[in-house]
Design goal:
Elements lengths: L15 H5 L4 E3 L9 E5 L1 H6 L9 H9 L10 E3 L3 E3 L2 E3 L7 E8 L5 E7 L14 E2 H16 L6 E13 L3 E11 L5 H9 L3 H15 L9 H23 L1 E2 L21 E2 L23 H20 L5 H16 L1 H17 L9 H17 L4 H12 L4 H4 L5 H20 L5 H9 L9 H14 L3 H11 L9 H4 L4 H5 L8
Antiparallel strand pairs: 1-3, 2-9, 4-5, 6-7, 7-10, 8-10, 9-10, 11-12
Helix pairs in contact: 4-16, 4-17, 5-6, 5-8, 6-8, 7-8, 7-9, 7-10, 8-9, 10-11, 11-14, 12-15, 16-17
Bound molecules: adenosine monophosphate and magnesium ion (MG).
Length: 510
């Protein structure tokens, strides 16, 4: 091992992106924080990454995760990317307030990116200050860790540091830096950056790099770019289906916020459904409901089409019109498979949520109607999405009172429950579990606790306005075991008052 200053940690970085993709980033240093203070350190994740969590506590951790004392082997870079934002194309976005410190191979052999968010201006900052505020960074930590505990692919939060600096938004706010861990930061927008410039050699290097990193089985495949499109379609179908089954609204599904890894990335104006309504939009800037809850699958497909366009010049000679047309047809066909992949993933998840487990073939159309009718009942009576699913597990054991209490007119619920019971009986006849086991398995798919918007806001306000981290820590604790009911955390399972949800607005880029 080489000698290094004792005061600087060594993360064991191995920076394949910087090494293999010159021209796709700018080497850059984080801004210095005047008075860094560690607000959050994810000890379990640090251990998973093979980092010395104890050494990263207190002032040392604050200095490291503020960017004041970088790991000795960090090679910070700002990555270039483009993207469609609300449907309009921006040829150059890039890391305007983020830096990739490097990649490391974790204890299970997975390569993970370690990146800062809020670490100051870069050549990609355009008009922005490059900074982030305590509230939104703790919000990303809470929601991404909550999503992880729910079993949904997501980037993770390793640390949040208050910088001691004031950032100016609508009001002055305490500044912060988040350290994010991701399977990679390759986005649809990364491909768009090179495709839009006609830099096809760089684009090919990027695509081959992406394949080595996320789809290594395709590496030697002569048809690997179509394979890459198919692989992303599959990952996104599965991811969006999981969002839809948990009531997650990303809020800003721009192409630069769609990760090639299939992880949920970029927690800005995201929020969770309370009362079920597919038209729900919380983002203050989403005036036309482009990223409404129910639009998410269609937007994913639209983003995939933008991704496919970037791959065409790799699939065929861009000078050969006929060959490009043929490639476009094959890509269109692959994108056309997305709705089927999505529907299948959705129904797979919904069957488990409904308590249907028998392996033998069942009627997809009938089950799709059964779920659609359940959701229609929730919609018509503005029932809380999370609690309704959760309490259906109680109903599987014959305890219906808690479920019924969510409905103003239980009549529609009753006729649906009768059909569902019949379907459960059929499931049991085909080898599915009995009532107790069914309810238990349903409780593993239908969370009791999600990061409810009013609880998240309450935690952030205490941290940001009053320097009180206790509500944040307690909520994070509650979110760690979302499927277990414990009286201690009962308050976190309760919906927000309807009036509060009706006026709830989330903000982007803050
Ligand atoms: P986002 O909405 O967070 O996905 O960011 C979209 C683009 O805006 C990315 O290129 C970001 O780097 C950039 N951006 C967002 N906030 C800031 C900021 N405060 N300063 C500079 N760039 C920013
Ligand atoms: Mg983004």
């Amino acid at each position: 091992m080489s000698a290094r200053p004792a005061s600087r940690p060594h993360f064991g970085f191995d920076n394949s992106y910087a090494r293999e993709l010159p021209g796709s980033y700018v080497a850059w240093q984080p801004a210095k924080a005047p008075a860094p203070r560690l607000l959050f350190l994810n000890a379990a994740l640090a251990a998973e990454l093979g980092l010395d969590g104890d050494a990263l506590r207190g002032d040392e951790g604050a200095a490291v995760f503020a960017g004041n004392r970088l790991p000795a082997d960090a090679e910070p870079i700002a990555q270039a990317y483009a993207g469609h934002q609300f449907g309009g194309f921006s040829p150059q976005l890039g890391d305007g307030r983020a830096l990739l410190l490097g990649e490391l191979v974790d204890r299970t052999g997975r390569r993970r990116d370690i990146a800062f968010k809020g670490s100051g201006r870069t050549p990609f900052s355009r008009g922005g200050d490059g900074k982030a505020a305590v509230g939104p960074m703790l919000r990303e930590a809470l929601v991404s860790e909550g999503m992880h505990a729910l079993g949904i692919p997501t980037t993770r939060a390793l640390a949040v540091v208050a910088t001691g600096e004031t950032v100016y938004r609508e009001t002055p706010l305490p500044g912060a830096v988040l350290t994010r861990v991701a399977a990679s930061h390759l986005r649809v927008g990364t491909f768009q950056f090179f495709a839009a410039r006609g830099q096809y050699d760089a684009l090919r290097r990027l695509a081959d790099y992406s394949i080595r990193r996320h789809d290594p089985a395709l590496a030697e495949d002569p048809d690997r770019y179509l394979g890459l499109l198919r692989a992303l379609a599959g990952r996104q179908a599965s991811l969006i289906a999981q969002w839809m089954n948990i009531g997650f609204i990303h809020g800003v599904m721009n192409t630069d916020n769609m990760a090639i890894s299939g992880e949920t990335i970029d927690y800005g104006p995201c929020a969770f459904l309370e009362a079920y309504d597919p038209d729900t939009v919380f983002s203050s800037i989403d005036h036309h409901g482009r990223y409404a809850f129910g639009n998410q699958p269609a937007i994913a497909r639209w983003n995939l089409a933008r991704f496919a366009e970037t791959l065409l010049p790799l699939m065929a000679d861009p000078e050969d019109d006929a060959a490009i047309r043929q490639a476009a047809e094959r890509a269109t066909e692959a994108i056309g498979e997305f709705p089927g992949l999505y529907d299948a993933a959705l129904l797979r998840g919904q069957r488990i949520k409904l308590g249907l487990f028998a392996a033998s073939a069942t009627d997809d159309a009938a089950d799709t109607t059964l779920v659609a009718d359940w959701l229609a009942v929730l919609h018509s009576q503005s029932a809380d999405f999370t609690l309704a699913w959760r309490r259906l597990a109680d109903a599987a054991e014959g305890r219906e009172a808690a479920l019924r209490s969510l409905f103003t007119d239980p009549g529609a619920l009753d006729s649906w429950l009768a059909r569902w019971r019949e379907r459960c009986a059929g499931d049991e006849a085909r080898g599915g579990p009995g009532a107790t086991e069914r309810a238990m398995r349903m409780r593993r798919a239908n969370p009791w606790i999600i990061p409810r918007n009013h609880r998240v806001e309450e935690a952030l306000a205490a941290a940001s306005d009053a320097d009180d981290l206790a509500p944040f820590e307690r909520l994070l604790e509650a979110l760690r075991n979302p499927f277990d009911e414990s009286p201690e955390y009962a308050a976190y399972a309760e919906p927000a008052p309807a009036a509060l949800t009706a006026g709830y607005r989330t903000f982007c880029g803050t």
